[in-house]
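Justification of computing resources. Each target in the renewal requires a structure prediction run like the one illustrated here; the chain below, 303 residues long, is used simply to show the kind of job we budget for.
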Amino acid sequence: MSLTFVTAQFAVSADIDANLAAIERLMRQAWSAAADVVHFPEAALSGYAGVDFQSFDGFDWARLDAATRRVMALAGELELWTILGSAHRLSDGRKPHNCAYVIDASGALADRYDKRFCAGDAEGKTGDLAHYTSGDHFAVFDIAGVRCGVLICHDYRYPELYRAYHRLGVRMMFHGFHAGGLAAERFAAMEADVGRHVLTGGTTLPGITMPAGMIAAASNNNMWISCANSCAPRSCWPSFKVRPDGVIPWACQPEVEEWTVQVVDPEADIYDSTVAWRDRAIDGVLHSGELVEDPRSRDRGSL
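Resulting structure tokens:
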């Protein structure tokens, strides 16, 4: 039992047709690598509201629907599972979901994950919440016998989501991002806030915290993670993947259309320092081994 996945990056933009062309091109390359599944960044097909385009006012939903059906048809032709970042329209003028469509190897829509933690203020006037409606569910599915899940960008700040997916048996996480295509002025301001991080070399908060968060999530929850990011100019970091021990075995080149392939073997002997106690900790038993009743243990005010 093993799963071969491709993590793909390209310069996501407001141009749905250009996004579609890149996605179809990369899908065919993933198929040539004998992948079971290809993973694309957040908002890969639709573009990202507030960055790639100003708002959803006047958005061409018919064009997005036609492009999505093209991707589904190609997935079926190639027999290739596809995790597709996009936007999902709601009714009655409500803000859409920031979503990832899970398209199976027959080209059918197997599930849809909607970003649960959209960044922004409590009144929904800034960040993601100015443009999107948050989701309320997990997406869990099996590919080649491996239990998989999906998260999107800012969700990484909430380790509870990874813990919940672990309890659902997920071993492979597809976590899409859009930390690219930033305006020069905004990117410069982000770098000015940070300087260069001594340990990682990151120059922005996303460039420091996102990879670090993925390393922690993988090693704390015994998961493989595919981290697909837009590679549009002024990208905070390139796409990469993480093993369950926290090792990053491969990353794409920065700001270049590229893909990497990796095989997941759930039975591989990969170091897991928390295997003996993780599930107990998740259940609220927050110590390892057995506790003792000892007055010197209870007395914390003396040597």
